[in-house]
UniProtKB/TrEMBL annotation:
Protein known as: Transcriptional regulator, ArsR family
SMART domains: HTH_ARSR
InterPro entries from the UniProt entry: ArsR-like_HTH, HTH_ArsR_DNA-bd_dom, SAM-dependent_MTases_sf, WH-like_DNA-bd_sf, WH_DNA-bd_sf
Residue span, HTH arsR-type domain: 11-102
Entry's Gene Ontology molecular function annotations: DNA-binding transcription factor activity
Bilayer-spanning residue ranges: none
Amino acid sequence: MTSLSAHADQISSVDVLAPIFKASGDPLRLEILRVLRRDTFGVLELSQLFDMRQSGMSHHLKVMHKAGLVEPQREGNAIFYRRPLHLDNDKPTDLTIRQIFEAVDRAPLPASLQEKIESIRNQRANQSQAFFSRYSEQFREQQELIAAFDLYAAPVADMIRKRTRKSQWQTALEIGPGEGGFLPVLSELSEHVVGLDNSRDMLAKATRTCIDERLNNVDLIEGVTDTLLARGDAFDLVVANMVLHHVPSPADIFLDAAALMNNGACLVVSDLCRHDQNWAKDNCGDLWLGFEPEELTAWAAAAGLKAGEQLFIGLRNGFQVQVREFWKTQTPLR
């Protein structure tokens, strides 16, 4: 009787794996999983990537979602898809899904597909830049519809100052300094500061801040992280304040930041937790409606960064801000 029961349990365990293998047993679906390694894409974007009708792509995503290979993420009125955030290594189904991801990730994306992904990222970037160009004069007013600058800048500054006692910040980078409100803090704590922004209008405002505050150790550079990577720059401290929800591929910020960090360096990020207030897209130029803390942790881990202290700040208007730190350890994480 015990033998029959054990056999039944084994069959049941195998049965739950069958839908996963069936859903992943299609070359196109494996390709979809590959492009979702770090990015989140909508149905229309995936249809564009793979040159197929939206109805066909929706069918594939439905099958994959039912099997647990992807999960939907609502961004306002649109549905995007990503790999599942929560996978338990003790569950056979989740372990199988993780092994499938690891297998497909070993193969590099074809150059033609990578070019299409870059095209979509450029479309997103152009959308964000157009907003900041149009509303640069009202930037602070627009941003404070969500969170006043001091509400997240002060906790970030406190976190950095607390670490300054143990670490020496020779060089610091702020990605997306906006009007430059946080540059005085970095100028005080680091010998040399770089502010990097792809908006010429915002850099002009940051320049005025540097002049008014007499920040003589700050260099402002127009460009993206690739600009600094090409120069071979390296930093002890990297800060991204309320930037991730404006960038085309937030996961890439972690990869690029890690590549720009010296061993023992720290990345400090403040950004919105996931929310459903779609008006932020039109009023504040947001590309993403915040992030799950697990998303940031996973992106950081994939970039070889170790999560440190975290702080969550609830705002009266329903938003929540997360302040996170990530470290580049002497020994790369595995």
